[in-house]
Design goal:
Nitrilase/N-carbamoyl-D-aminoacid amidohydrolase, 6-stranded mixed beta sheet, alpha/beta, single chain
Length: 272
């Protein structure tokens, strides 16, 4: 496993006590075992514990099963599925938020590609993927969400997005209500260049950090090279996992610097 440490302020504990707006995030690029939630929980736990003292850990899309367009017998059962229970346990254990999407068979009988953001106190915010991937027939089995979801954690506001949502900028428009957009994905190698280009576009046009977490390895349909990146509001690549590696990257989000840039160059005020 590769660990990439990006920019982290040497006085981070002191800055936190002084309530300056610094947050440490860890993005987890992993090879997902097909349709094996128990094994994927084990792998995820290993990667999380190897990168201590983060405020937020982000896992890929459908991290517990792989991207299952035919979810029968693969999606996890119930609104309180085993992997959500595990996320709560890990959040409490690490005193950090845990985020990532899970394929679930919900209590109302629908299948959902559901992005969970879990805090250490056990509270959960979720977002159901709005733009289902019709090319891969995701819309034939899953029910789309309709709500745009933003969650605040330790002073940072996060927009929750999943994979194909990246291609639809109107849905992600920043109305001054978020600081970072999280895109979790199972985005294949064959289309990796659009992924990388659109991540930068979303960061620039919304003057925000973009936290992108993709997977590596393969499933029955596709190969994945990774593409896990952190991009700042200038569209600059802050840090990235090497392609085709199991990897974590740890970096800081500097909200003071972000707000100073927005104040100096207030493009969000001119949005449509």
């Amino acid at each position: 496993m590769v660990k990439v440490k990006g920019k982290r302020h040497r006085y981070y504990p002191l800055l936190t006590k002084l309530k300056l707006k610094i947050m440490i995030i860890t993005q987890i690029q992993q090879d997902i075992a097909w349709a094996d939630p128990a094994e994927n929980r084990r792998r995820s736990e290993e990667q999380i514990l190897a990168a201590p003292q983060s405020d937020l850990y982000v896992l890929p899309e459908m991290w517990s099963t792989g991207f299952a367009t035919e979810p029968e017998g693969i999606a996890e059962e119930g609104d309180e599925c085993a992997s959500l229970v595990w996320m709560k346990q890990m959040a409490a254990r690490t005193d950090a938020a845990i985020a990532g999407s899970i394929a679930i068979h919900a209590s109302d009988g629908t299948y959902r590609n559901r992005f969970y953001f879990v805090k250490p106190d056990g509270s959960v915010t979720h977002y159901d993927k709005r733009h289902l991937f019709t090319y891969g027939n995701e819309h034939h089995r899953y029910t789309a969400g309709s709500e745009r979801v933003i969650v605040e954690w330790r002073g940072v506001r996060f927009l929750l997005q999943i994979c194909y949502d990246l291609r639809f900028p109107v849905f992600a428009r920043n109305h001054g209500d978020y600081d970072a957009a999280i895109y979790v994905a199972s985005w294949p190698t064959s289309r990796i260049q659009p992924w990388r280009a659109l991540l930068r576009a979303r960061a620039i046009e919304n003057q925000c950090y973009v936290i992108a977490v993709d997977r590596t390895g393969s499933d029955p349909a596709c190969d994945y090279c990774g593409g896990t990146e952190l991009i700042d509001a200038y569209g600059t690549l802050v840090s990235a996992c090497p392609d085709n590696t199991i990897c974590t990257i740890t970096n800081e989000l500097d909200l003071d610097a972000l707000n100073a840039f927005r104040k100096k160059f207030p493009v969000l005020n001119d949005a449509d």
